[in-house]
Specification:
- The chain has 486 residues and is an alpha+beta fold.
- The chain folds into two domains: 2-44 and 106-152 and 247-420, Glucose Oxidase, domain 3, CATH 3.30.560.10; 156-237 and 429-465, FAD/NAD(P)-binding domain, CATH 3.50.50.60.
- The chain has ten helices and 22 strands.
- The chain has helices at 55-63, 71-81, 110-121, 153-159, 209-219, 225-230, 270-283, 370-385, 407-417, 467-485, and strands at 18-19, 32-33, 82-84, 100-102, 137-140, 145-146, 149-150, 172-180, 183-191, 194-199, 204-206, 222-223, 237-238, 250-258, 295-299, 310-315, 331-338, 346-348, 359-361, 394-399, 419-420, 450-452.
- The strands form eight sheets. Strands 5, 14, 15, 16, 17, 20 and 21 form a seven-stranded antiparallel beta sheet that branches. Strands 8-9-10 form a three-stranded antiparallel beta sheet.
- A hairpin with a 2-residue loop joins β8 (172-180) and β9 (183-191).
Length: 486
């Protein structure tokens, strides 16, 4: 059920539930980093927002050594996977024949349109398609929802198809990739406490995500030789870039109490939740069919950028993303933060045991522009909420609080309250230099018959949510694989 998206974030059965090391830029807090431990990976536990990123993101990938990954070349693969909802007119930037359904919300709650109108009054453009020709502005945010249900990659690409060439080993955990004479020949794994292996007829394709893909490579002897030696792992391929270049998005909530009882707050009690769940279960209809992030937008911080670098997700209720903290009153909020931070972190091994979670250090808020851009994001959210459109609905500010105004106070608020938007990427960077891990076809440098195909190969983080560009990467590498098999 899309509106229950927060529940998997706290469910250890389907979530690896990683945490970062203490982050010095965030008051030494350990930041939650949920990752999907379920078919469909993190697309099965995410917020279902469908944002492709800015076209300049992909042009920058090519400039960083990922030849052929410019926007003109990747756009067809975004379209290939997508079937946009029928409420939109056919558009050169949308796909209409792919397995992944994307829909726009019905905007039943009046606060959605009020937010967009207020953003326009604040001087920002209206944008009815943030995945289209231009990203800047405010308007609908599509979601990966199909007929009222979450459209994970498992639901869209596997469950709907009778795939005769796929065997899923349920309950199996990969230990390492088996290498022989510089060639990937299989994978060892543990299932029901029994160590087994499977041989590859053609090649091994690693799709474990930005946290686990570098971990598996290092456990297999692929990585920085000195780091591997520290854990008594024999170096089979010296690739110092494995686990480096870790990126993520941070966000805070700017929350406003609502003077009229029109927010979703009235639906947070058990009786209303049960009613929503029953309506969804019986009719695939109602409030259960949306992720509630139905509108949002992008603006330019004007800090060394010539395209938007701050994102806003509006929500007509005041509560934390994981559902643990809810305001005691009617309210609304916007999630906002920098999209293009220059902060870079790493994923490293804690020990040589594949069951041990790796060390994750995002190095948050270490970029020179991070705090100025974050302040601009918060002040812009406040500016929008203070427009006349919100006059009948705006009450006191819940968070940060009206007394938090100076640069120093805002910085302190950010250090204490910023959370991950759950967009880790970049740890097996695509490129051609000595710090890259894979080439533009996803092939691991120096190792035959091994590819990586997930968000870990992003050279730079994209300007928005990561689900859509990760699926695009998979589509494109799948085509490379097919072409070589012919």
């Amino acid at each position: 059920m899309p509106s229950a998206f927060y529940m998997p974030l706290n469910d250890s059965r389907i979530n690896w539930g990683f945490f970062s090391e203490p982050e010095s830029g965030l008051n030494n807090r350990r930041i939650h980093c949920p990752r999907g431990k379920v078919l469909g990976g993190s697309s099965s536990i995410n917020g279902m927002v469908y944002v492709r990123g800015n076209k300049e993101d992909f042009n920058s990938w090519e400039k960083l050594g990922a030849a052929g990954w410019n926007y003109e070349n990747v756009l067809p693969y975004f379209k290939k996977s997508q079937t946009a909802d029928e409420r939109r007119e056919p558009h050169p930037y949308q796909g209409h024949e792919g397995p992944l359904a994307t829909t726009t919300g019905k905007m039943v709650n009046p606060l959605y349109n009020i937010f967009v109108e207020a953003a326009v009054s604040a001087g920002y453009p209206r944008n009815d398609d943030i995945n289209g020709a231009d990203q800047e502005g405010f308007g609908p945010m599509p979601m990966t929802v199909d007929s009222g249900r979450r459209a994970s990659t498992y639901q869209a690409f596997i469950k709907k198809r009778a795939l005769k060439n796929l065997t899923v080993l349920r309950g199996a955990t990969a230990e390492k990739i088996i290498l022989e004479h510089g060639k990937a020949v299989g994978v060892s794994y543990v299932r029901k406490n029994i160590l087994s292996s499977v041989r590859a007829n053609s090649e091994v394709i690693l799709c474990a995500g930005a946290i686990s893909s570098p971990q598996i490579l290092m456990l297999s002897g692929i990585g920085a030789a000195d780091e591997l030696a520290h854990h008594d792992i024999k170096t089979l391929a010296h690739l110092p870039g494995v686990g480096k270049n870790l990126m993520d998005h941070l966000e805070v909530y700017v929350q406003q109490s609502c003077a009229q009882p029109i927010s979703l707050h009235k639906h947070l009690n058990l009786v209303r939740k049960a009613r929503i769940g029953l309506e969804w279960l019986l009719f695939s209809n109602g409030l259960g069919t949306t992720n509630h992030f139905e509108v949002g937008g992008f603006i330019n911080s004007e800090v060394n950028n010539d395209y938007p670098d701050i994102q806003f997700h509006f929500l007509p209720v005041a509560m934390s993303y994981d559902g643990k903290n809810q305001a005691s009153r009617h309210g609304f909020q916007v999630h906002t933060g920098p999209m293009l931070s220059k902060s870079r972190g790493s994923v490293t091994l804690r020990d040589s045991n594949f069951r041990t979670a790796p060390k994750i250090h995002f190095n948050y808020m270490s970029g020179e522009d991070d705090f100025p851009v974050f302040r601009k994001a918060i002040r812009t959210a406040r500016k929008i909420f203070r427009q006349s459109e919100f006059d009948p609905y705006r009450d006191i500010e819940i968070s940060p609080g009206e007394h938090i105004e100076s640069d120093a106070d805002l910085d302190a608020f950010i250090r204490e309250n910023a959370e991950s938007a759950y967009h880790p990427c970049g740890t097996c960077r695509m490129g051609a230099d000595s710090d890259s891990v894979v080439d533009p076809a996803g092939k691991v440098h120096g190792v035959d018959n091994l590819r990586v195909a997930d968000a870990s190969i992003f050279p730079n983080i994209t300007n928005g949510n990561l689900n859509a560009p990760t699926i695009m990467v998979a589509e494109r590498i799948a085509e490379f694989i097919n072409a070589e098999q012919k």
